[in-house]
Amino acid sequence: MAISKILVANRGEIARRVFRTCREMGISSVALYSDPDAGEPHSREADEAVRLPGAKPADTYLNIPAILQAASDSGADALHPGYGFLAENAVFAQAVIEAGLIWIGPPPRAINVMGSKIESKSLMRRAGVPVVPSIELAGLSAPKSAALSLGFPVVVKASAGGGGKGMRVVADSDELNDSIEAARREAVGAFGDGTVFLEKYLASPRHVEIQVFADNHGNVVSLFERECSIQRRHQKIIEESPSPGIDDSLRREMGEAAVAAARTVDYVGAGTVEFLVEDTNFYFLEMNTRLQVEHPVTEMVTGLDLVRLQIEVAEGAPLSPHALRPTTTGHAIEARLYAEDPHNDFLPVSGHIHRFGFEPREGLRIDSGVEDGSNVSVHYDPMLAKIIAYAPSRAEAVASLASALRSAHVHGSTTNRDLLVRVLESRDFVDGNTDTSFLDHHDITALSAPLLDHDEETRAAIAVALADRSLRRAGAVVQKTVPPGWRNSPSQAQRSVYRGPTGEHQIDYITNEGEIHVLGVPPLQIQLASPDLVEIATEDHSYRFEVARYGGIRYADSLSGSARFELLPRFPETAGHEDRGSLHAPMPGKVIRVDVAVGDSVAVGQPLVVLEAMKMEHTLKAPHAGLVTAVACGPDDQVEADEVLVIVVDDQTAPLPRSDIVSA
Ligand code: ADP
Q: N or C: fewer beta carbons within 10 Å in the chain?
């Protein structure tokens, strides 16, 4: 039966993802949105949107009566659950079907069986699919001896578990009882079911899963594997296909096992059979009876649209010929960009996203839930977007993803971006040495260190200081109150101070007839293509920074990474600079004449600059013999008291590398 209107019972990127295919298929779409999601992208991209009052999931995206009412009110004839929320809730699936809607998902019975890790494992064991050794705890009087028979370490798992919740790794028997109790409590809280079991904990397996697809005509296919070994808190953050760790024969075996698993439960639609792989052995972990977060990876290597297939299968059509004879080309890899703090145990971060953008590039796909101006709510998952790169080879796809993340514009939230880049660029990852203990065996602090080192960050701070200056000058031009004859080019040494991720940066610079000298750094060539686009060139490198401002916060984005700065109060030139030979204007006035140039040697008492102030001329004289290393004013310049006019470095001191000259 042809579907004409789909209600998507979800939010964020997956709701947007489903709407996209609806548009392509000419199917109308209905969005649901909670109060915090009002105005967020997913609430605006369907043909209709229905408000679910409230914020908490229980009141909104988990509220079955309200969702069914919305479906009925909007005249939807089908419902897509996305992933998470009610996607694997068999009671909901049944209620949707009983309400006369087409459920775009597997039969409730399959959801039910696979929703229990205990039940699904015993089913798989009976079907001859290898499973991780495990022991049920129900009615067991001596869990310790059971655990000893498995061999420590073991993992206590919630049978209803998902998202890494209700899972405890136990190293030895002393911790066992406490861990069982803790896992039970967590499982009751998260899933309303405290059934837990023990499983042998494999030291460092790969997580490799098979995407399966089944229709109502008896066809079940494997759409190959995704490797998802890079995880934090047992949750995936990087996923790719093909897996760098399995060969064709293992791929075939696992595909056949996954298809067998799906057949055992008369599966229909999209599903994922998850395995742990050790050497050439694989073990069934669980089956997810829904579209997976990481499905784009499969879409990019197979060229199939999995949401379209879901809809076609739900309409009763057989799988398309392409899906029945799937092939893969190239390599796809996805990174999940989260609003979370890797320095603080990956704690989710909520708040406002000022800017969210990626430079377009071939093979790059962004499935995001947010855009400029979005808010990350405390109520929902903090995933901002999935960034997926496709290329002919793994090395190219990995490099492309890393570089897309480096050059991204993500302003307003702490994210795991730097960690993702460092993992992707690490030797072990590039070599395909990926297993689920990757982050445990690498130094998280080093892996999540800012992408720009201190020197690079200083360059970014210089860019910010000069962009800020350029903005002030642009503002000054339109100030009608500036008296004629005043130069709009301040010639005093100016200081901007910023606090960045690696520390504080004090940027001192002087301008002279449109030229900028940044003090205290090796020579730089500086160009401002626009007030917010600064190019800084050293002798052998050039760097381009895009500067953005939000109140007292600055972001400098570059191809190599981004730095967030806090603008600190500026303060006048300090005595420290005078020691280095700075000569200040003694009072406000106008420069009449400059008698020296950079590079001149001067004698003590030699006139340097003549200033007119209070109708009188004042001559600034060299306080000591030395070399003129900077002239920061020109004839007719109006200067303020205390502005640096000339720098004369003492003969005894070697001239400091001061700056280089450039046009602003
Ligand atoms: P959930 O359903 O909560 O996602 P899973 O059972 O799918 O939990 O496991 C999630 C992750 O936890 C796996 O990908 C793997 O990294 C780790 N894990 C789970 N069970 C084991 C095990 N027996 N041995 C080693 N790692 C495991």
A: N
